[in-house]
Amino acid sequence: MAVAFLLAVGATTAIFLYVQGVKKGAKPSANFVTVIVAKKDIPAESQLDPLIQEGQFTTLSVPRDAVVAGAVTALSDLQNQTTATFILKGEQISRARLQGSEISQDRFGTRAGFEAVTVQLDQQRVVSGFIQARDHVQVYTTLDNKSGVTFTATLVPDVRVLKVGNTSGTGTGGTVLVTLELTPPDAAKVILAQEEGHLWLALLPPNQQGLPQPPVTIGQLAK
C-alpha cells in the first residue's frame, strides 16, 4: 500500500507539472487581440462621445485571425467620432464605419476647392427623382429682377451630384434632398436662389458638359 501511495503521489505531481508547463508554453494572449465593442445597438449618424461618457462600450478578446480590418482597439479612437453606418451590439467596430472631424470633408468624395451644399426640391424639379449620386446636372433659377421682370436663367452650368436621399411624399408632391458639389461662389448663388427664388435641376447626358443659357423672360415666350 505504501508503494501504491507513493506511485499515486508521483503521478499526481507529474500531471500537475505537465499542466503548468502547457499553460506556460501556450501563451494564449499572443493569439488574441482586445477590441472595443458596443454594449447596445448604435444607429447611424450617432455621436459617440455621449455614449463613451455613459459607458456604452466594453472590450472583447478576439482571435487574432478573426479581427476585422481597422478594428478599434482603444476607446480613445472613438472620441470625436460619429457612426457612418449602423453598429450592432457586441460586434467589432471598424474605423471605416466611423466619421470624424478629420475626414468629414471627404465622406462625399468632395474635391479640393469645392463645397457640399444640400438643397430641398420638389420631385418635378429633380427630373422626377431620377437624379442619382455622381450624375451631372445643370442648375437653373427663376427670379424677379429689380424691375419686377421674372426670368429664368442658368445659375451653374455643370454640377456634380454627391448624394440624393431623404425623399418625402410621393409623385409630384414629394420632395428630395440633393447634395451638390459647388465652388464657394456658386454655392452662394445656389443658396440665394433657393432662398429668394426657385431652383430646377436638369440632368446632363453622360460625358456631356453643361453650357450656360441666356436668361428667358415671359415676354420672350411668344417669340
Notes on the structure:
Strands 5, 6, 7, 8, 9 and 10 form a six-stranded antiparallel sheet that branches. Strands 1-2 form a two-stranded antiparallel ribbon. Mean pLDDT is 81; it is low at 3-12 and 101-105. It has helices at 2-26, 49-53, 184-196; strands at 32-38, 57-63, 81-83, 98-100, 115-122, 136-144, 150-168, 175-182, 198-203, 216-217. The chain starts with a helix and ends in a 6-residue tail after the last strand. Strand 7 (150-168) and strand 8 form a beta hairpin. It has 223 residues and is of the alpha+beta class. It is elongated and about 80 Å long. It has two domains: 30-104, Antifreeze-like/N-acetylneuraminic acid synthase C-terminal domain (Type Iii Antifreeze Protein Isoform Hplc 12); 115-220. It is built from three helices and ten strands.
Average predicted confidence as pLDDT: 81
Number of helices: 3
**Shape annotation:** elongated
Order of helices and strands: HEHEEEEEEEHEE
**Low-pLDDT segments:** 3-12, 101-105
Helix content: 10-25%
- Main sheet: strands, sense, barrel: 6 strands, antiparallel
Q: DSSP strand (E) fraction?
A: 25-35%
Distance between the termini: 124 Å
For the secondary structure, the number of strands is 10
Structural class, by secondary structure, is alpha+beta
Q: Compute the number of structural domains.
A: 2
List the keywords.
single chain; 223 residues; alpha+beta; Type Iii Antifreeze Protein Isoform Hplc 12; 2 domains; six-stranded antiparallel beta sheet; two-stranded antiparallel ribbon
